[in-house]
Amino acid sequence: MAKKATAGPKKSADAAAFARAVNEAYKGNLVTKGSSNVVILNVPRFSTGILSVDEAVGGGWPRGRITVLAGENSTGKTEMVIQACVSVQKYDKNTKEHTLLFDHTARTFVPSRALYIDVENSFDKVWAAKKGFDLGHHYIVRPDTSEQAIDIITRALDEGHFDLIVLDSIAQMTPSAELEASSEDWQMGLAARLNNKAFRKWVSVMSKKNRAGKPAPALICINQMRLNIGQMFGDPRSLPGGKGQEFAASIIVYTRSSKYDNTSSAAASVVELGGVVYKNKTFTPKQNYTFKMGVKQSTDHDLGEVDNFTELLKRAKEVGFVKRAGGTHNLFKLGYPSESSLRAALKSDEALRYKLWRSIVKHSTKAEL
Asked: Quick one: pLDDT at residue 101?
């Protein structure tokens, strides 16, 4: 005797009833009106710590999204994630406000925290501390296998103790089966399959938290470019670790080779780093950026210092925040008798620098910072 068919769910009377029924069935806020969702251009962000990168990506690294930084060696990938760690600690854990905008008289400022997944086992504590990385505040993980790294990141995304998670790097993610097997054995596509599964899990966890109104941490993954041997047409570069990263990432940044300034001595004292925001689901893509960093102590730059100040003054003039009237340089209705006095005021006043920084980024990106 044939089994009697069970009746399906009762049809909804209208769209509102459909939304209520689905949300009740799955116990979540899955279906909403478009007007209730956050506008994609106004996703919550924190500064990258580099002015030109802030402008290129749309106001800063987006919270609750995945970013991939990919490029050849010595093109600034690690520098950018260290700058991100230094920057995120300036934001309050609870309100997500920058310390210079935070009301310190009303409540206690709790700095945001980063989790650095050092798969390559190459994190330089001395260099990071020189750049302002708080070693006593942030956490560093050195996993043995891909599985460990994936599970740790998944748990960190879900529990929400960190505002920034860095994975360094996708290319070095090694499955346990590869470590345990003989070097003569091949595990074709194993790392890619494992990474693809990881990115699907991470996107799901982040989406769930974002829907609940609790922005997930920003996840920034480093990767290294590979050249496809024998390819004669198209871009010969590819990213190891599977295609999943390219689909899951809201932002993909391709870093490019450095330019070295050897005019002062035989050893480079300053390098110019740059790249292009190849993919951006939160802002206009294909935006370029450049910045200079001191790699040697000199009279003009400290070791490890990103020269944001020169870029800040240049951009302030370009967008019209600094205007010259006669011999006076005007900024925010304040007059300075010379450019040197304006520079001195900006160097000595962190709040003024940050106000100018935010004004430039908001002017360029229209982001709500």
From this structure: 96
